[in-house]
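Shipment paperwork, digital attachment
Item: protein structure file
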Amino acid sequence: MTTTPRATSMFSPFSRTGSAAACTRLLILLLLLACPMQGFGMGSSGGGKGRAGLQILTIWEEGTDERIPVYVWYPTIRPERPSFLEPYTVRVAREGQPEEGRFPIVLISHATAESGLSHHTMAEFLARHGYMVIAPTHPGDNFLDTARIFTERQVVERPRNMIQALDAVLSNEQLGPIADAGRISIIGYGTGATAALLLAGAVPNTTGLRSYCDAADQNDPYCSHWAQERLASLMTKPKGVLAPAQDKPWHDPRIRSVALIAPGYAMLFDAESFAGFSTPAMIIEAERDRLNPPALHAQHLREVMPPDTPYFILKDATSFMLHAPCNERMQANYPAICKDPAGTNRRDIHDTLHDILLRFISHTQDPD
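Attachment content:
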Protein backbone atom coordinates (compact mmCIF):
# COMPACT_ATOMS: atom_id res chain seq x y z
CA MET A 1 0.00 0.00 0.00
CA THR A 2 1.21 3.49 -0.73
CA THR A 3 1.10 5.24 2.64
CA THR A 4 1.46 8.83 3.73
CA PRO A 5 3.75 9.86 6.59
CA ARG A 6 0.66 10.12 8.78
CA ALA A 7 -0.37 6.46 8.64
CA THR A 8 1.49 3.84 10.64
CA SER A 9 0.42 0.20 10.50
CA MET A 10 0.77 -1.87 13.64
CA PHE A 11 -0.43 -5.38 14.40
CA SER A 12 0.03 -8.13 16.93
CA PRO A 13 2.84 -10.55 16.03
CA PHE A 14 0.97 -13.36 17.72
CA SER A 15 -1.34 -15.72 15.88
CA ARG A 16 -3.10 -18.95 16.62
CA THR A 17 -1.48 -21.57 14.44
CA GLY A 18 -4.04 -23.42 12.40
CA SER A 19 -6.80 -20.87 13.08
CA ALA A 20 -8.74 -20.01 9.94
CA ALA A 21 -9.90 -16.77 11.55
CA ALA A 22 -6.34 -15.71 12.34
CA CYS A 23 -5.20 -16.57 8.82
CA THR A 24 -8.04 -14.51 7.39
CA ARG A 25 -7.11 -11.49 9.50
CA LEU A 26 -3.46 -11.80 8.54
CA LEU A 27 -4.39 -12.05 4.86
CA ILE A 28 -6.49 -8.90 5.19
CA LEU A 29 -3.56 -7.08 6.76
CA LEU A 30 -1.13 -8.16 4.06
CA LEU A 31 -3.57 -7.08 1.36
CA LEU A 32 -4.02 -3.70 3.04
CA LEU A 33 -0.29 -3.15 3.24
CA ALA A 34 0.90 -4.57 -0.04
CA CYS A 35 -1.68 -4.08 -2.77
CA PRO A 36 -1.92 -1.01 -4.97
CA MET A 37 -5.16 0.97 -5.02
CA GLN A 38 -5.85 0.13 -8.64
CA GLY A 39 -8.45 -2.62 -8.90
CA PHE A 40 -9.80 -2.06 -5.40
CA GLY A 41 -13.10 -0.89 -4.13
CA MET A 42 -15.60 -0.65 -6.96
CA GLY A 43 -18.44 -2.16 -5.03
CA SER A 44 -20.67 -2.92 -8.00
CA SER A 45 -20.39 -3.80 -11.63
CA GLY A 46 -22.44 -0.68 -12.40
CA GLY A 47 -21.41 2.06 -14.81
CA GLY A 48 -18.85 3.58 -12.48
CA LYS A 49 -19.83 7.23 -12.98
CA GLY A 50 -18.01 8.21 -9.78
CA ARG A 51 -20.87 10.38 -8.53
CA ALA A 52 -22.62 10.32 -5.17
CA GLY A 53 -26.38 10.61 -4.78
CA LEU A 54 -28.11 11.32 -1.47
CA GLN A 55 -31.57 10.59 -0.15
CA ILE A 56 -32.79 11.34 3.36
CA LEU A 57 -35.28 8.99 5.00
CA THR A 58 -37.10 9.36 8.31
CA ILE A 59 -37.77 6.51 10.70
CA TRP A 60 -39.06 6.40 14.28
CA GLU A 61 -37.15 4.72 17.08
CA GLU A 62 -38.79 1.60 18.45
CA GLY A 63 -40.03 2.08 22.00
CA THR A 64 -39.67 5.88 22.07
CA ASP A 65 -40.99 7.07 18.69
CA GLU A 66 -38.15 9.57 18.51
CA ARG A 67 -37.37 10.76 15.00
CA ILE A 68 -34.24 9.33 13.34
CA PRO A 69 -32.99 10.98 10.14
CA VAL A 70 -31.28 8.39 7.93
CA TYR A 71 -28.84 9.62 5.28
CA VAL A 72 -28.32 7.29 2.33
CA TRP A 73 -25.56 7.82 -0.24
CA TYR A 74 -25.32 5.71 -3.41
CA PRO A 75 -23.82 5.79 -6.92
CA THR A 76 -25.83 8.00 -9.27
CA ILE A 77 -25.86 8.97 -12.92
CA ARG A 78 -26.75 12.57 -12.06
CA PRO A 79 -24.14 15.33 -11.62
CA GLU A 80 -23.16 16.38 -8.13
CA ARG A 81 -23.80 19.88 -6.83
CA PRO A 82 -22.98 21.64 -3.54
CA SER A 83 -25.91 21.45 -1.14
CA PHE A 84 -26.24 23.00 2.31
CA LEU A 85 -27.60 20.67 5.00
CA GLU A 86 -27.28 22.38 8.37
CA PRO A 87 -24.48 22.81 9.31
CA TYR A 88 -22.67 21.02 6.45
CA THR A 89 -21.99 21.65 2.81
CA VAL A 90 -22.19 18.34 0.97
CA ARG A 91 -21.44 17.66 -2.69
CA VAL A 92 -24.01 15.20 -3.99
CA ALA A 93 -26.88 14.71 -6.42
CA ARG A 94 -29.92 15.12 -4.16
CA GLU A 95 -32.50 12.43 -5.00
CA GLY A 96 -30.34 11.57 -8.03
CA GLN A 97 -31.30 8.58 -10.16
CA PRO A 98 -29.15 5.60 -9.09
CA GLU A 99 -26.77 3.83 -11.39
CA GLU A 100 -27.88 0.42 -12.54
CA GLY A 101 -26.67 -2.44 -10.36
CA ARG A 102 -26.75 -3.62 -6.77
CA PHE A 103 -24.37 -1.94 -4.38
CA PRO A 104 -22.76 -3.38 -1.24
CA ILE A 105 -23.69 -1.56 1.95
CA VAL A 106 -21.61 0.32 4.50
CA LEU A 107 -23.31 1.41 7.72
CA ILE A 108 -21.81 4.34 9.61
CA SER A 109 -22.42 4.94 13.33
CA HIS A 110 -21.22 8.41 14.25
CA ALA A 111 -19.26 9.47 17.31
CA THR A 112 -20.78 11.02 20.44
CA ALA A 113 -22.66 14.29 19.92
CA GLU A 114 -22.29 14.20 16.13
CA SER A 115 -24.81 13.27 13.42
CA GLY A 116 -25.38 11.08 10.39
CA LEU A 117 -23.79 13.85 8.30
CA SER A 118 -20.63 14.21 10.39
CA HIS A 119 -18.67 11.84 8.14
CA HIS A 120 -20.30 12.84 4.86
CA THR A 121 -16.98 13.06 3.02
CA MET A 122 -16.31 9.40 3.81
CA ALA A 123 -19.83 8.51 2.65
CA GLU A 124 -19.45 10.49 -0.57
CA PHE A 125 -16.09 8.85 -1.25
CA LEU A 126 -17.50 5.35 -0.80
CA ALA A 127 -20.58 6.10 -2.92
CA ARG A 128 -18.32 7.29 -5.74
CA HIS A 129 -16.57 3.92 -5.51
CA GLY A 130 -19.73 1.87 -5.87
CA TYR A 131 -21.08 1.54 -2.32
CA MET A 132 -24.35 2.42 -0.64
CA VAL A 133 -23.73 4.17 2.68
CA ILE A 134 -26.37 4.36 5.42
CA ALA A 135 -25.85 6.72 8.38
CA PRO A 136 -28.58 7.49 10.93
CA THR A 137 -28.43 10.28 13.50
CA HIS A 138 -28.67 8.60 16.90
CA PRO A 139 -31.43 9.99 19.16
CA GLY A 140 -30.20 11.56 22.38
CA ASP A 141 -26.59 11.37 21.22
CA ASN A 142 -26.15 14.04 18.57
CA PHE A 143 -25.06 17.66 18.34
CA LEU A 144 -28.62 18.91 18.97
CA ASP A 145 -29.59 16.46 21.73
CA THR A 146 -27.14 14.95 24.23
CA ALA A 147 -29.63 13.51 26.73
CA ARG A 148 -28.26 9.94 26.47
CA ILE A 149 -24.52 10.66 26.68
CA PHE A 150 -22.81 8.52 29.37
CA THR A 151 -25.97 6.57 30.04
CA GLU A 152 -27.00 2.97 29.46
CA ARG A 153 -29.30 4.09 26.65
CA GLN A 154 -26.37 5.55 24.72
CA VAL A 155 -24.88 2.06 24.48
CA VAL A 156 -27.82 -0.32 24.26
CA GLU A 157 -30.01 1.55 21.76
CA ARG A 158 -27.44 2.45 19.10
CA PRO A 159 -27.24 -1.04 17.54
CA ARG A 160 -31.01 -1.16 17.12
CA ASN A 161 -30.94 2.29 15.49
CA MET A 162 -28.51 0.88 12.93
CA ILE A 163 -30.64 -2.17 12.17
CA GLN A 164 -33.79 -0.07 11.89
CA ALA A 165 -32.02 2.22 9.42
CA LEU A 166 -30.72 -0.74 7.41
CA ASP A 167 -34.13 -2.43 7.28
CA ALA A 168 -35.81 0.84 6.28
CA VAL A 169 -33.47 1.18 3.31
CA LEU A 170 -33.86 -2.45 2.26
CA SER A 171 -37.65 -2.09 2.28
CA ASN A 172 -37.61 1.28 0.49
CA GLU A 173 -39.24 1.10 -2.93
CA GLN A 174 -36.45 3.00 -4.69
CA LEU A 175 -33.37 2.16 -2.63
CA GLY A 176 -34.08 -1.46 -1.68
CA PRO A 177 -33.67 -2.89 -5.20
CA ILE A 178 -30.16 -1.39 -5.59
CA ALA A 179 -28.91 -2.55 -2.15
CA ASP A 180 -26.84 -5.73 -1.89
CA ALA A 181 -27.94 -7.17 1.46
CA GLY A 182 -25.40 -9.98 1.08
CA ARG A 183 -22.47 -7.59 1.56
CA ILE A 184 -22.78 -5.33 4.60
CA SER A 185 -20.00 -3.69 6.62
CA ILE A 186 -20.12 -1.18 9.44
CA ILE A 187 -17.80 1.70 10.30
CA GLY A 188 -18.03 2.90 13.89
CA TYR A 189 -16.52 6.16 15.11
CA GLY A 190 -16.03 6.62 18.87
CA THR A 191 -19.14 5.29 20.61
CA GLY A 192 -20.22 4.02 17.20
CA ALA A 193 -17.41 1.46 17.40
CA THR A 194 -19.16 -0.13 20.37
CA ALA A 195 -22.36 -0.39 18.33
CA ALA A 196 -20.35 -2.00 15.54
CA LEU A 197 -18.85 -4.59 17.88
CA LEU A 198 -22.22 -5.48 19.38
CA LEU A 199 -23.71 -5.95 15.91
CA ALA A 200 -20.74 -8.11 14.93
CA GLY A 201 -21.13 -10.47 17.88
CA ALA A 202 -18.97 -9.15 20.73
CA VAL A 203 -20.46 -9.64 24.21
CA PRO A 204 -20.15 -6.64 26.58
CA ASN A 205 -19.34 -6.76 30.28
CA THR A 206 -19.72 -3.61 32.37
CA THR A 207 -17.32 -4.58 35.16
CA GLY A 208 -14.44 -2.80 33.43
CA LEU A 209 -16.16 0.52 34.05
CA ARG A 210 -15.61 0.18 37.79
CA SER A 211 -11.83 0.28 37.54
CA TYR A 212 -11.49 2.42 34.41
CA CYS A 213 -10.85 5.71 36.20
CA ASP A 214 -8.10 4.16 38.34
CA ALA A 215 -5.92 4.07 35.23
CA ALA A 216 -7.31 7.15 33.49
CA ASP A 217 -6.06 10.72 33.43
CA GLN A 218 -7.87 13.12 35.75
CA ASN A 219 -9.26 14.95 32.71
CA ASP A 220 -10.66 11.82 31.07
CA PRO A 221 -14.25 12.60 29.97
CA TYR A 222 -15.53 9.29 31.36
CA CYS A 223 -14.24 10.22 34.83
CA SER A 224 -15.83 13.62 35.39
CA HIS A 225 -18.26 13.78 38.30
CA TRP A 226 -21.13 14.35 35.86
CA ALA A 227 -20.19 11.36 33.70
CA GLN A 228 -19.67 9.07 36.70
CA GLU A 229 -23.13 9.89 38.04
CA ARG A 230 -24.69 9.07 34.68
CA LEU A 231 -22.64 5.88 34.27
CA ALA A 232 -23.58 4.61 37.74
CA SER A 233 -26.41 2.40 36.48
CA LEU A 234 -23.98 0.65 34.13
CA MET A 235 -21.35 0.14 36.81
CA THR A 236 -23.82 -1.52 39.19
CA LYS A 237 -25.17 -4.09 36.74
CA PRO A 238 -25.39 -7.52 38.45
CA LYS A 239 -22.44 -9.59 37.23
CA GLY A 240 -21.77 -6.91 34.65
CA VAL A 241 -24.57 -8.13 32.38
CA LEU A 242 -25.76 -5.59 29.83
CA ALA A 243 -28.98 -6.47 27.99
CA PRO A 244 -30.11 -5.29 24.54
CA ALA A 245 -32.89 -2.74 24.20
CA GLN A 246 -36.31 -4.47 24.17
CA ASP A 247 -34.47 -7.79 24.60
CA LYS A 248 -33.73 -7.97 20.87
CA PRO A 249 -30.31 -9.55 20.19
CA TRP A 250 -27.56 -7.18 19.13
CA HIS A 251 -25.71 -9.62 16.92
CA ASP A 252 -26.76 -9.40 13.28
CA PRO A 253 -25.19 -12.15 11.13
CA ARG A 254 -25.61 -10.00 8.03
CA ILE A 255 -22.61 -7.88 9.11
CA ARG A 256 -19.56 -9.11 7.18
CA SER A 257 -16.90 -6.80 8.67
CA VAL A 258 -16.38 -3.91 11.09
CA ALA A 259 -13.95 -0.99 11.18
CA LEU A 260 -13.44 0.66 14.57
CA ILE A 261 -12.20 4.24 14.31
CA ALA A 262 -10.98 6.01 17.47
CA PRO A 263 -13.18 3.58 19.43
CA GLY A 264 -14.88 4.49 22.70
CA TYR A 265 -16.36 2.50 25.60
CA ALA A 266 -13.63 -0.10 25.13
CA MET A 267 -13.74 -0.90 28.85
CA LEU A 268 -17.01 -2.74 28.17
CA PHE A 269 -15.04 -5.51 26.47
CA ASP A 270 -12.53 -8.08 27.67
CA ALA A 271 -11.03 -11.23 26.17
CA GLU A 272 -14.16 -13.21 27.00
CA SER A 273 -16.21 -10.72 24.98
CA PHE A 274 -14.54 -12.08 21.85
CA ALA A 275 -14.58 -15.78 22.70
CA GLY A 276 -16.96 -16.55 19.83
CA PHE A 277 -16.16 -13.52 17.68
CA SER A 278 -15.33 -14.32 14.05
CA THR A 279 -16.26 -11.18 12.12
CA PRO A 280 -13.28 -9.59 10.30
CA ALA A 281 -12.42 -6.37 12.12
CA MET A 282 -9.91 -3.54 11.99
CA ILE A 283 -8.92 -0.92 14.56
CA ILE A 284 -7.78 2.60 13.65
CA GLU A 285 -6.32 4.75 16.42
CA ALA A 286 -6.35 8.54 16.39
CA GLU A 287 -3.00 9.16 18.06
CA ARG A 288 -3.98 12.42 19.82
CA ASP A 289 -7.53 11.43 20.75
CA ARG A 290 -8.45 13.06 24.09
CA LEU A 291 -12.08 11.91 24.14
CA ASN A 292 -11.27 8.20 23.97
CA PRO A 293 -7.58 8.00 24.97
CA PRO A 294 -5.95 5.33 22.78
CA ALA A 295 -4.11 3.62 25.65
CA LEU A 296 -7.44 2.80 27.32
CA HIS A 297 -9.61 2.27 24.26
CA ALA A 298 -8.06 1.46 20.87
CA GLN A 299 -5.00 -0.23 22.39
CA HIS A 300 -7.12 -2.05 24.96
CA LEU A 301 -9.24 -3.51 22.17
CA ARG A 302 -6.06 -4.52 20.36
CA GLU A 303 -5.07 -6.55 23.43
CA VAL A 304 -8.39 -8.34 23.93
CA MET A 305 -9.57 -8.83 20.34
CA PRO A 306 -8.47 -11.82 18.24
CA PRO A 307 -4.76 -11.89 17.38
CA ASP A 308 -3.71 -10.32 14.08
CA THR A 309 -6.63 -7.90 14.01
CA PRO A 310 -5.22 -5.17 11.73
CA TYR A 311 -4.30 -2.05 13.69
CA PHE A 312 -3.45 1.34 12.23
CA ILE A 313 -2.42 4.63 13.82
CA LEU A 314 -3.35 7.97 12.29
CA LYS A 315 -0.34 10.01 13.36
CA ASP A 316 -1.11 13.33 15.10
CA ALA A 317 -4.85 12.92 14.51
CA THR A 318 -7.33 14.12 17.12
CA SER A 319 -10.86 12.76 17.30
CA PHE A 320 -12.20 16.04 15.89
CA MET A 321 -9.99 15.66 12.82
CA LEU A 322 -11.98 12.55 11.89
CA HIS A 323 -15.01 14.78 11.48
CA ALA A 324 -15.65 16.04 7.93
CA PRO A 325 -13.70 19.17 6.95
CA CYS A 326 -15.54 22.33 8.00
CA ASN A 327 -17.09 25.00 5.82
CA GLU A 328 -16.69 28.68 6.76
CA ARG A 329 -19.94 28.77 8.72
CA MET A 330 -18.88 25.78 10.81
CA GLN A 331 -15.46 27.27 11.43
CA ALA A 332 -17.17 30.32 12.91
CA ASN A 333 -19.82 28.45 14.92
CA TYR A 334 -17.92 25.30 15.98
CA PRO A 335 -14.26 26.29 16.41
CA ALA A 336 -13.50 23.42 18.81
CA ILE A 337 -14.44 20.87 16.15
CA CYS A 338 -12.91 22.73 13.24
CA LYS A 339 -9.55 23.99 14.51
CA ASP A 340 -6.75 21.48 13.94
CA PRO A 341 -3.39 21.43 15.75
CA ALA A 342 -0.58 23.35 14.11
CA GLY A 343 1.35 21.33 11.57
CA THR A 344 -1.52 18.94 10.80
CA ASN A 345 -3.75 18.64 7.75
CA ARG A 346 -7.26 17.24 8.14
CA ARG A 347 -7.64 16.47 4.45
CA ASP A 348 -4.45 14.39 4.47
CA ILE A 349 -5.81 12.43 7.43
CA HIS A 350 -9.05 11.81 5.54
CA ASP A 351 -7.27 10.75 2.37
CA THR A 352 -5.32 8.16 4.36
CA LEU A 353 -8.42 6.98 6.20
CA HIS A 354 -10.40 6.63 2.97
CA ASP A 355 -7.60 4.60 1.41
CA ILE A 356 -7.33 2.15 4.32
CA LEU A 357 -11.08 1.68 4.71
CA LEU A 358 -11.73 1.15 1.01
CA ARG A 359 -9.15 -1.64 0.88
CA PHE A 360 -10.46 -3.28 4.03
CA ILE A 361 -14.14 -3.16 3.06
CA SER A 362 -13.62 -4.30 -0.51
CA HIS A 363 -11.75 -7.42 0.66
CA THR A 364 -13.91 -8.37 3.61
CA GLN A 365 -17.18 -7.97 1.68
CA ASP A 366 -16.11 -10.14 -1.23
CA PRO A 367 -18.40 -13.21 -1.06
CA ASP A 368 -15.86 -15.27 -3.01
